[in-house]
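Thread: Newbie trying to understand structure tokens

Hi all, I'm a second-year student working on a class project, and my supervisor (Dr. K.) asked me to get a predicted structure for one chain before our next meeting. I've only ever worked with sequences, so writing a 3D structure as a token string is new to me. If someone could post the tokens and maybe explain what I'm looking at, I'd be very grateful. Here's the chain:
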Amino acid sequence: MATELEQRNKALVLQTQDEVWNKGNLDFINQAVAPDFIDHPTRRAWDVPAQGRDAMVQAAKALRSAMPNYHSEPIQIVAEDDRVTILARITGTQSGTLFNLPATGKSFSVTEISEFRLANGKIVERWGLVDMVGMMMQLGHVPGGH
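---
Reply by user tm_fold:
Sure, no problem. This is what the structure looks like when written as tokens:
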């Protein structure tokens, strides 16, 4: 059974996913994310800082400006000690420029796995993996999409 701390950490990660990524509430980042936040993406598809709250702000701005209906739906969330891992389905329709690629009007649905480390009630680190190839195929930017 999850401890009280693990439950609080899971709740904060879920609330951050909903507020920042689903609703575009970038102000929530100041409440949920530590000032010295470090992001560990597998590779950036766009140029944003990898440290500090601004890393999350810029990533959310880039994705939500290209796909205002961007949505992250949790499939599973697990907490252990100071770590929270979430498996989610992300969806959206590209109506604006994404990674310097023109809008296609096409939609995508792929999975994402992110692990967060929390300390003192804030998100301090994130490791993430998104099916970017699947997303680009579905959006029509690389061959093989639908």
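A couple of things are worth pointing out once you decode it. The two ends are 42 Å apart (CA to CA). The domain at 4-138 is CATH 3.10.450.50 (Nuclear Transport Factor 2; Chain: A,). Feel free to ask follow-ups in this thread.
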